[in-house]
Amino acid sequence: MNQEDFERFIMELPHVQREENFGYLLFFVGDDHRLPFVTIANSVNDIDNVSNLDRDGVFRINIGVSKETFNSLDLHLNEDMDYSVLNVFLPHPHYAKQHFICILNPVDDNLEKTKPFILEAHV
User: Fold this and answer.
1) 82: buried, middle or exposed (CB in 10 Å: 19+, 13-18, 0-12)?
2) How crowded is the C-beta side of 84, counted as CA atoms within 13 Å?
3) Cβ contacts of residue 54 below 8 Å, gap of 6+?
4) Is 111 exposed, middle or buried (0-12, 13-18, 19+ CB in 10 A)?
5) Residue 37, pLDDT above cutoff 80
6) What confidence tens digit (pLDDT) does each residue in 65-81 have?
7) Where do the domains of the chain lie, and which CATH numbers do they carry?
8) What's phi and psi for 96, nearest 5 deg?
9) CA distance 25 to 7
10) In percent, how much of the chain has pLDDT > 90?
11) Structural contact between residues 20 and 45, judged by C-beta atoms closer than 8 angstroms
């Protein structure tokens, strides 16, 4: 799936609204726009430059999962973490404390894991 496929998948979920801000696509459930359940980034900005998103076709999906799911993935922040690696689940570089995970260009098994994480976040 490419970025557009993920956007379509997310927008087909019930009551989803989409906004664009700071180079991100922000997806909210319902009218309460306090915290998106998923975001997609595909370019570097002043706030976020750790994933080298200016590469052609590279996008990062950020997903707010439950604490239990986050902990089950056994993700640990460290200063040497390479956020530019493709197809690897990582703690979000800025929102891991809010149980956000991220992945760049998921494929194969991780593609199949990404969809249920999005569905969980949508609830």
Assistant:
1) exposed
2) 10
3) 43, 44
4) middle
5) yes
6) 999 999 999 887 777 89
7) 3-122 (3.90.1150.30)
8) -65, -35
9) 9
10) 74
11) no
